[in-house]
Design goal:
The chain is mainly α and 434 residues long. The protein has one domain. Helices cover 76% and strands 0% of the residues. The protein contains 22 helices and no strands. The longest helix is centred in the middle third of the chain and has 27 residues. It is globular.
Length: 434
């Protein structure tokens, strides 16, 4: 098989055919049906994997199985999948214990009425970082955004826009977000280091977003009539996971500790009975099955594409365009944004683009934390702006709007992209340590 590998060192465009097949099937189904979620991503990926196996008769079927097994068995792929499942278990346990509801109500109870829309953005940031899910944040806060719009007279679109902007803040920062897990494991860096790098890049965008929302809605006034009940104890598991990850405790220890504490809190507060503890954890774990299986199948595809010379072909193109590490970082950013626009799923985009980004970062000495941050940031930029993405579709469905009504108020994703590009162009670089 070594002789065949040498034949692909120059790269081959045809090796990218499986990825092209996936995009045609997935995007084509979305365009024809006008529903980009009518075609399950896993089905499109399995078809693409079949194409990858049919390609290149120079390798036997058994050789291809060996290539796939090696790709799936990579330490980072296995670790990523296990973290997905642990994060799902934590999410299921803490949500069943009432942690999500308490976190939302706690934030809303602290909301100054004069800055209701700014508060929606701020609470969205807090909730998304705590929960690790932009979709969960939107689902929790959308009804509140509707109420604020009705009572203040502000356009519904700007209220829900603030919610989605806040949701996208935590989507690429939270320690238990599947995008963060994918970015960190594909690039081979620590979560706390990626968080610090990521935070420095996005915080200017968040601050400017607050200022814009403040000036646009500064004359608003709002008060919630219903009582907002919350229990600070139920929010503690979120804080434990966030602080534990930031100080560098092993992510498995942090997540398992969060699960145990959430179960204790849930049973102690009668949120669920002790005989339901395995059910609530299991429900969260099964919620991560899709992304886990997709990650495995994508690893299979990418390993064959790489073996056939596809990734080398992309690297050769980027090598011609990139002028040093700045060009390499812009290449990673463009790659992440482009793949997300094609897949309409930022986690899948990171899983697909991650191996290519890793090759680029190694060749141009881009720090792994920077590469992981750029993958996460620019896939979130795309996800926060494409009208067929789950976030905007969900926000529109919950408020009776269309994604196009909300997009003009998506200040944060746009500013996040601007901030990241500025960091690429003007920030001093440190050599990558291996």
């Amino acid at each position: 098989m070594e002789g065949n590998i040498k034949n692909f060192e120059k790269g081959r465009a045809i090796a990218l055919l499986p990825i092209g097949v996936f995009l045609v099937i997935f995007l084509g189904a979305g365009i024809v049906t006008k529903d980009f979620y009518s075609m399950p991503a896993i089905v499109a990926f399995l078809i693409a994997l079949t194409v990858a196996f049919i390609q290149n008769r120079e390798l036997s079927f058994n050789d291809k199985i060996g290539v796939v097994a090696k790709g799936v068995g990579d330490e980072n792929i296995i670790t990523m999948c296990l973290i997905f499942l642990c994060a799902g278990g934590f999410s299921g346990a803490v949500t069943a214990a009432g942690g999500a509801e308490s976190a939302v109500n706690l934030g809303l109870s602290l909301l100054p009425p004069e800055i209701a829309v700014v508060g929606l953005f701020g609470i969205g940031c807090f909730i998304s970082v705590s929960m690790g899910t932009s979709m969960g944040t939107i689902s929790a806060l959308a009804p509140i955004a509707v109420e604020i719009s009705e009572k203040t007279g502000f356009d519904m679109a700007i209220c829900i826009g603030a919610v989605v902007c806040g949701a996208m803040f935590g989507d690429n920062l939270s320690m238990i977000s599947d995008t963060t897990i994918a970015a960190v494991k594909t690039q081979g860096c620590e979560m706390k280091d990626k968080f610090k790098e990521n935070f420095l890049i996005v915080i200017p965008a968040a601050i400017i977003t607050v200022i814009i929302f403040f000036f646009v809605t500064r004359n608003g006034d709002f008060s919630l009539e219903e009582e907002l009940s919350y229990d600070v104890v139920k929010v503690i598991p979120y804080m434990l996971v966030l602080v534990g990850a930031l100080i560098g405790i092993n992510v498995f220890v942090v997540l398992i500790g969060g699960i145990v504490l959430s179960l204790i809190v849930g049973v102690a507060t009668d949120a669920f009975a002790i005989n339901q503890i395995f059910t609530v954890v299991g429900g969260g774990v099964t919620g991560m099955y899709d992304i886990t299986v997709i990650s495995i199948v994508v690893a299979c595809i990418v390993s064959l594409v790489k073996e056939y010379g596809g990734i080398q072909f992309i690297l050769n193109i980027i090598r011609k365009m990139a002028k040093g590490s700045k060009g390499a970082e812009l290449g990673i950013a463009t790659l992440a944004l482009s793949v997300d626009c094609c897949t309409a799923n930022n986690t899948v985009a990171i899983v697909m683009a991650g191996p290519i980004a890793k090759e680029i970062s190694n060749e141009y000495e881009v720090p792994a934390t920077r590469s992981a941050s750029l993958l996460d940031i620019f896939s979130s930029v795309g996800q926060g702006l494409i009208p067929y993405g789950a976030q905007l579709l969900s926000a529109a469905a919950l408020t009776g709007l269309t994604p196009y009504d909300i997009i003009p108020y998506m200040y944060y994703p746009i500013l996040m992209a601007v901030s990241a590009v500025c960091f690429i162009l003007f920030r001093k670089r440190k050599p990558q340590t291996i």
